[in-house]
Amino acid sequence: MSSRIVADNSLSLTDVTQPYFDSMEMDDFTRRPASAEMPTLGQLLKHVGDARKEATGDGSETPVHQALDIVDGAGAGPRSLPFVLSFSNLTYSVKASRKMSLSSVFHRRSSHLGPSAVAEAPAVGESMFRRTKTLLNDISGEARDGEIMAVLGASGSGKSTLIDALANRIAKGSLKGTVALNGEPLESRLLKVISAYVMQDDLLFPMLTVEETLMFAAEFRLPRTLSKSKKNARVQALIDQLGLRNAAKTVIGDEGHRGVSGGERRRVSIGIDIIHDPILLFLDEPTSGLDSTSAYLVVKVLQRIAQSGSIVIMSIHQPSYRILGLLDRMIFLSRGQTVYSGSPSQVPVFFSEFGHPIPETENRTEFALDLIRELEGSPGGTKSLVEFNKSWQSMTKHNQTTTEVEGNGLSLKEAISASISRGKLVSGATNTNPNPSSMVPTFANPFWMEMATLWKRSFLNSRRMPEVFGTRLCAVMVTGFILATMFWQLDNSPKGVQERLGFFAFAMSTTFYTTADALPVFLQERYIFMRETAYNAYRRLSYLVSHALVALPALAFLSLAFAAITFWAVGLDGGFSGFLFYFLIIFASFWAGNSFVSFLSGVVPHVMLGYTIVVAILAYFLLFSGFFINRDRIPSYWIWFHYFSLVKYPYEAVLQNEFDDPVKCFVRGVQIFDNTPLGSVPQALKLKLLGSMSNTLGINITASTCLTTGSDILRQNSITQLSKWNCLWITVAWGFFFRFLFYFSLLLGSKNKRR
User: Fold this and answer.
1) pLDDT tens across 256-291, in order?
2) Distance separating alpha carbons of residues 82 and 142, to the nearest angstrom
3) Other residues' Cβ atoms within 10 Å of the Cβ of residue 56
4) What is the spatial distance between Cα 377 and Cα 638, in angstroms, rounded to a whole number?
5) Sequence-distant (≥ 6) Cβ neighbours of residue 263 within 8 angstroms
6) Average of per-residue pLDDT across 20-37
7) Which of 176, 236, 361, 366 has the largest count of CB atoms under 10 Å?
8) How far apart are CA 213 and CA 271, in angstroms?
9) In Å, how far are 162, 469, 482, 737 from 734, measured between CA atoms?
């Protein structure tokens, strides 16, 4: 098979070499005969760096960088045969709510009065309150490697929807039509491995440098069989290819930290998705929000990516004249229908034959979009233009002779093998299975490597924002200081017992409330996580474990600080062993609270709504914990909530740690009258009352007789079912349970597909 690939390539090499080099603007390479050896990937990237300023007009001083081959022998031999992504009859509709008014309702009721009402009647499958909106309507076309296909149109024309349809981001069953690569249907698993999708928003970690961001992407997407030096070589070559050499050591930045420019951020976003050199690259509005120069540089980078053997498909709102010169194919959409499909050079001829010639002084895309918008507002809409485009396409296909990939006799498996052998799909494997989807692994690295890389990235990003952890630590220490000074050295009197109960209830509930800051952590990373897992950068389970491991050291330090400040200052019992258990139960509370809030962040996508829910649920947990009302007094219809309360188990654990001493006494002699109306009578009268009680009960009760021990206090508070260690293990188990639920929220809530 390999010999046939080489032979077929050699036949077309003379035709491919010259335009390929011309478009890369490398004048020092001359045309080569079919037998000549193609330049290596490193040589190509080197000359891209040399010619960058002249070719792109970029004013930055990018030094020349020698890129190394990332796959042995990848640069030898001719370029792989081209891929063709074809799509036909793509149709996608959604149900939308119908805007209703009082007058329209009465108008429908009186539909028998005139034919005008008949036009208002819902179509088949619709109702009075819902209607069907067609976002894509029978769209067909094709895109080839080495070319950029741009999807244009006004807002709402269906540009992003078409990109999502081609990138398999629409749920199966909702999209009608076919998408094929080299004539074979694209499986979802294979598409995730050989493609990349760049979102419109730049979703990056703010405190990582450009080089670190790309290096972490390489750790995720490149296999561990590739050495560290080769991964670094790939990153350095990509930095030069993206024109980011001067910004390589600069942090990405955000609203509070100065970083790279908008155009550089966009190129970094592209870089992290093409680190594995995919065959298919989809981009949603890559030039949105950029100035003309930055937008041109971004598209110039995309041209280089396409010329390296990739299919680049992007949506763009309104390209400038310079960007238009970089595009190879264009599709104009209007309300989900194709109104033009072809090369940019044919746009003037197309509209001239349609009867609307483009003036020489006017931008052809601006003219086309303005005309389409004008037709959309006319009574007939763009129907005439859609019909003219169909006839134009039929005539063009009849007059032109195209060479399809099927004519070369290569299957999709053979084409992918040829690409892998020449350096494409850096994470590709050499599997001989006839199924194309088995040729490349689902994930480039094992679970433990993904987990370690995720932990390292999160830790590095957090370490460079010490103010976040510092704020948490200050909040915990201030709370501990206030509690320590308010409950300073409590005694063992009945009042001291009540004060200890109040201290424990407030301290345990505070540990849960202070974990609410975990809510925005995942909400800030949600779309980064969705983007990376959508195309199998790593497993969701890896993210779950690393997310928990990153949180544990900070939670342990906060627990130790709170326990050290309050334990001895309040005068709690148990010595060092008591302190150790007190620290462990606080740590377990932090762990359970952090897991609970993480689960909510996976379910509730909004910060303010999430905080409202967290505060409300934690308040219910405290209410049913057993502090305000004993378990025996809770109504039977609410007792289930008592056992679901996260505060219940830490609260009972610290009470047992404090009072589970049958020898220690908390009420002696006349102290029995404290907190009663008799508490204010003279001491002598209290002693007489004790004597009367002794005579009545037949027990000698003196001023030093112990009447209530710690065990009695536990029984009075209905804390008799579980030991303190069982309460600790249950609290820890709650943390794992909510992490388990968080994992399911990641599975179900990160599909990132249209319905």
Assistant:
1) 788 898 889 989 998 998 888 888 999 988 888 888
2) 13
3) 22
4) 61
5) 290, 291, 293, 294, 295, 297, 298
6) 37
7) 236
8) 9
9) 44, 24, 29, 5
pTM of the model: 0.74
Whole-angstrom distance, CA of residue 710 vs CA of residue 604: 43
Q: How many CB atoms lie within 10 A of CB 409?
A: 11
DSSP reduced 3-state for 339: strand
CB atoms closer than 10 angstroms to residue 406: 12
DSSP 8-class letter at 284: E
- For residue 356, pLDDT over 60 is answered with yes
Find where tokens 């905080």 sit: 611
- Please state, in angstroms and rounded to a whole number, the distance separating the CA atoms of residues 591 and 514: 11
The C-alpha atoms of residue 499 and residue 485 are separated, in whole angstroms, by 13
* Cβ neighbours of residue 64 closer than 8 Å, sequence gap 6 or more: 46, 49, 50
- Distance, in Å, from the CA atom of 385 to the CA atom of 334, rounded to the nearest integer, reads 10
List 176's β-bridge partners, or say none.
Answer: 91
Give whichever of 175-184, 406-415, 573-582, 687-696 has the largest mean pLDDT. Answer: 573-582
Token digits of residue 291: 């100035």
Buried b (16+ CB within 10 A) or exposed e, 659-670: bbbeeebbbbbb
8 A C-beta contact, residue 247 and residue 208: no
Query: What span, in angstroms and rounded, lies between the C-alpha atoms of 354 and 389?
Result: 9
180 beta partners: 86, 185
For residues 127-147, average pLDDT: 82
Q: CA 600 to CA 261: how far, in whole Å? A: 34
Residues 88 and 692: their CA atoms lie apart, in Å, by 101
Structure tokens at 533: 């897992």
Per DSSP (E only), the strands in 71-160 are 84-97, 130-144, 148-152
Q: Which of 376-390, 417-431, 584-598, 648-662 has the lowest mean pLDDT?
A: 417-431
**Structure tokens belonging to residue 61:** 């001083």
Structure tokens at 716: 């009075």
* The pair of three-digit structure tokens given for residue 468, joined into one six-digit string: 């976040």
Instruction: List phi, psi (to 5°) of 290.
Output: -105, 155
Element (H, E) at 708: strand 706-709
Residue 76 near residue 155, CB atoms below 8 Å: no
At residue 26, what is the residue type? M
Q: Looking at 45-49, 341-345, 541-545, which range is the least confident one?
A: 45-49
Both tokens of 262, joined, read: 């908008």
